């Protein structure tokens, strides 16, 4: 154990991440910080006065707590977690966030994908909200035990996110840009209202629920949205049932070709996303522009489960297929196979053809085509090229007719 005061100023939202949300030309290193529960002060006569909820605040002093990650043994202290653990994670995390912020097909960087899910998983655990949730999970308030468990579980969410449909959406055409919170990796489930039990306090909806979307703003103009394949292919099922193959620690397969890009959000969609981010924060939200911090002025919170007709965070289902079996071959002759939900051939439920999803997927494709027209809301990479931006009239009509024919009785 050793004491190094240089590393006791612990940012649970890294400074490099905060800078990604500044407006163009901002060089003074300050953000607009909104306190959702500002403290109350009493004057000499006993009258209560709430502190200002909105402040222009230095990035260096925002989203930090002294000794949040400091280990203690009596009077001896160790800052090894800040120095080594988060020093490394923030280093490769920044590069991974840069990569996906600027991602374009046909780029493939397996290291960036691994680093991204590791960084996001650690980021979800390292905040006061994440540590509060972890304390409930492991049943201890002992800070040393809690921080040790945090390091051990740094990849808790990695496998589930690796197998999701990834969508990188763009706010460049909106005057309003993205905000971020004191818990930047946000989880939204349209069936769980902000005041529901699973959204209170330190809780988040389980990312393994079919309808749970993970939302991670990458910058003021880009957001990463992860959707469970089970929901992307069939949003008519139980939203609060665990997705297939829901184990946390297991092998998983990442498909760069299925990443959906070139979705340009409307200003109302950006405001709805900001509303979700604000509602899922523990105490603070921030942005480069103070006006972006009040999405409730434009968004009806009672429509929580119906943002975007219920599909605000959904990838476009038209590039998706019912199957998706993946084979790996190695130089020594070994082979491995995974189905669309990363199950192995010996696992219960292994479904190489994905036939059980096909009817519902065709129905959803038809509904989506009717809702959004022939122009796709996101484009993936198939047959060595990007999907067409617009479906042909014949294909569009055929898709609608196929979906109608397969509607359940």
What does this structure look like?
The chain is of the alpha+beta class. The protein has two domains: 306 residues, no CATH class; 80 residues, no CATH class. The chain has ten helices and 19 strands. It has a five-stranded mixed sheet. Strand 3 and strand 4 form a beta hairpin. Helix 2 crosses helix 3. The longest helix is centred in the first third of the chain and has 22 residues.
Give me a quick take on this structure:
This protein has ten helices and 19 strands.
Keywords:
alpha+beta, 409 residues, four-stranded antiparallel β-sheet
Q: How do the helices and strands follow one another from N- to C-terminus? A: EHEEEEEEEHHHHHEEEEEHEHEEEHEEH
Q: Major sheet: order of its strands?
A: 11-12-13-9-14
The total beta strand count reads 19
Number of helical runs? 10
Rg (C-alpha, Å): 22 Å
Shape: globular
Fold blueprint:
Blueprint: E1 9-11, H1 15-18, E2 30-35, E3 40-42, E4 48-50, E5 54-58, E6 64-66, E7 71-73, E8 76-78, H2 80-101, H3 110-126, H4 128-138, H5 143-152, H6 158-162, E9 165-170, E10 180-181, E11 186-189, E12 212-217, E13 222-227, H7 229-233, E14 260-264, H8 267-279, E15 284-287, E16 326-329, E17 335-338, H9 355-372, E18 381-382, E19 385-386, H10 393-405
Parallel strand pairs: 9-14
Antiparallel strand pairs: 1-6, 2-5, 2-15, 3-4, 7-8, 9-13, 10-15, 11-12, 12-13, 16-17, 18-19
Helix pairs in contact: 2-3, 3-4, 4-5, 9-10
